[in-house]
Amino acid sequence: MSSLTYGQLIRGNRNFRNLLYGQFISELGNWFNFIAGLGLVRLVSEASPTAAGIFFLCRVLPFAVVSPIAGTFVDRFSRRQVMIWTDLARVAIALMFLLVTGGKDLWIAYIGTVLLSTFGAFFDGAKNATTPNLTGREGLLAGTALMFSTRFLLMAIGSGLGGWAAYAFGYKVAFIVNAASFLVSAFTVWLIPEEATRDEQTAERMSDKSKRPSFVQELKEGLHYTIVNHFALTILLMNIIWAVGGGAINVAFERVGGVHFAGIEGWNPDMAVGILWWAAGLGLTFGMLIAHRTSIYLERGGRHTWFIGWALIIHGVLFSVAGFMPTLLLFAFFTFISRAIIGVEYAVQETLFQRSLPDYIRGRISTLDRGAELTVFGVTSYMSAELMYFISPMKLTVISGVLSGFAGVVWFLRQGTTNEKISEAPPPTP
């Protein structure tokens, strides 16, 4: 099956362009907020690992908890309106961080992070469910790669700029940039017509409210689909296993850059953490951008399953190697390589996953998967922060790589070496 190139999709699809531009701006602001928020918590808590752990938990756990609800919500109501209103709410929430001036105000940073994460779950659920309808079947691989590569590119640019801005101008500038970014995102989503966010079959299903099951029934329907569908359950289990190791990455970067290499090489803590996130984001972006050519090669030989499993294993091994590096730049190099590999893998995996999901249930399944992954991610982030009292951040890096790479083993155990168990849903209407 032919796939549109990145250029073809961007030039020929105005609605997708608007969504992509909005994400670009809002993700830039998000990373300003993350680096500045992390630095602010480190400053007012006197570099407490527990405070950092709570911050990470507040960032990911609310997203995870509300994701099943958010997924059901965006399958029942206007995805366009959900994205607009959650963006507008986050404008005000982002400005809450300006009120944090000392250790006694840490609760404000935590509450603000919880609220940003909660509203983000609804926005991401609506955006992810909408994207296949905007791209059409032939543009889905390019659209998936572009949406995620943009996010990861902004991880690189936003974290680097956020670290520099926090160093040069202070944390308040970063929080104001974050608030403004959500306003721009809301405007770009507003430019997308309502009918473009659904396929015709789902729109008809929504219009006849007398035949629609209740909210709770639709929530249960999503859970049941995930359990009984072999491929959906495989993706869920694999991502949960990956998150067991992946959850340590937040803490590893904060401790490796902000404490370890800042101490032995004299780096500014915010700059050092920003460099590591920059390397990770750049690697993921590079991986996403070569995913299109990689997928064409994989489709010719039917090698998708083989590639996904081995890519997961190899990326984990390489990230473990980073834990033995003597300098920040070498650590960043191995981080870049491991993230590039997982970037290609994720684009291929996510495209297969989205193609397998019917539009009417896509929001529920994708957010349930993401929510379960982030639940584990958040819990292991906090546990990793507590481990910092007993082990070094470099040892944590090695453990993180080994555990996240084990997701490839789980993939092979579930899928074998063929694509026979991957079925595709009917094509969405562009």
Verbal overview:
With 430 residues, the protein is mainly alpha-helical. It has one domain: Growth Hormone, Chain: A (Up-down Bundle). The protein is 81% helix and 0% strand. It contains 17 helices and no strands. It has helices spanning 6-12, 14-44, 49-76, 79-94, 106-135, 140-169, 171-190, 200-207, 215-228, 230-246, 248-264, 269-289, 291-301, 304-322, 328-355, 359-387, 393-415. It starts with 5 loop residues before the first helix and ends in a 15-residue tail after the last helix. The relative contact order is 0.17.
Structural class: mainly alpha
How can the largest sheet be summarized? Answer: none
Termini separation comes to: 16 Å
The CATH homologous superfamily is termed: MFS general substrate transporter like domains
CATH class wording: Mainly Alpha
Q: How is the CATH topology named?
A: Growth Hormone, Chain: A
- Low-confidence segments, given as residue ranges, are 426-430
The general outline is globular
Number of strands: 0
How many helices does DSSP assign? Answer: 17
Mean pLDDT: 80
Instruction: Report the β-strand fraction as a percent range.
Output: under 5%
CATH architecture: Up-down Bundle
Give the number of domains: 1
The radius of gyration is 21 Å
Order of helices and strands: HHHHHHHHHHHHHHHHH
Q: Helix fraction? A: over 70%
